[in-house]
Fold this protein.
Amino acid sequence: MATASITMSEAQFNTLRKIVYERSGIHFQDSKKYVLESRLSRRLEEMNFENFDQYLMFLTAGPYQTDEFQEMFNRITINETSFFRNEPQLEVFEKEILPEVLEARKDTKRLRIWSSASSTGEEPYTLAIQIHRTLGVRLPDWHVEILGTDISEKVLMTAQSGVYPSYSIRTLNPLILKRYFTEEKGTYALDPTIKSMVRFELLNLKDAISARRFGTWDVIFCRNVMIYFDDQMKTHCTKLFYDQLAKDGALFIGHSETLRNIDVPFEPIPVPHAFAYKKADGTGKGEA
Ligand SMILES: C[S@@+](CC[C@H](N)C(=O)[O-])C[C@H]1O[C@@H](n2cnc3c(N)ncnc32)[C@H](O)[C@@H]1O
């Protein structure tokens, strides 16, 4: 654990985590004070602040607050991800859910997928690879839209570049690596066709109004972010996903996450390793 050069008092921690929660729904438990302290003390140094009171003042008052919130989220979010993360779940997407959705959309040939906490892009690009290999030569006949969104501007810049360090491809099947990436001086550039299938937008899941502007989705992924939320924020997000999911669509959450205690009518799709849900009553908007 890195030692923070500027220490944070309990009172400063409580003020800061309340602000972070109100803005983003990210809940820092008591035991996570060191995360905020170590990640932000460097920022304080860069800005020549002597203590967290000065930073809190800067964050909440004055004309720069919006930019600083962005900078803060760039630093305090946990962005861990990788290509084909939790492969058994992605197999369920590719082998079970995707064929059903393609069949259901065969007339319109329109497919819309949302990766709602996409981090540096590995998740939505993985979905693009899966769709690319499933549709094969039929791909040009389809209008495929894959959107990756995240609260951190910094991760989205990496996502948009489509170029990854060796760490990101650490678990990747060598055949996929060979087929979809070009190595250059130790970095891996994604195939331009796959890159062009995904677009990225800055979006805070707390902001349901902005999220609704993107319309309705056939499949929504929200993996490994709800672990940072409390039940109130999880309910907010799950309601949002319910409203924005086509009536025959599917929601995927992370394998260590659950919708238990969340009062939104989703039911598990009975496939092993999936952690996937569909609308229990099949209501809502039609296709995406
Ligand atoms: C651990 S990563 C998960 C990435 C990917 N979904 C996966 O499972 O590999 C969690 C991401 O959620 C983002 N995040 C946290 N709070 C958010 C919020 N309120 N709105 C949107 N994204 C958020 C973080 O910036 C981070 O990039």
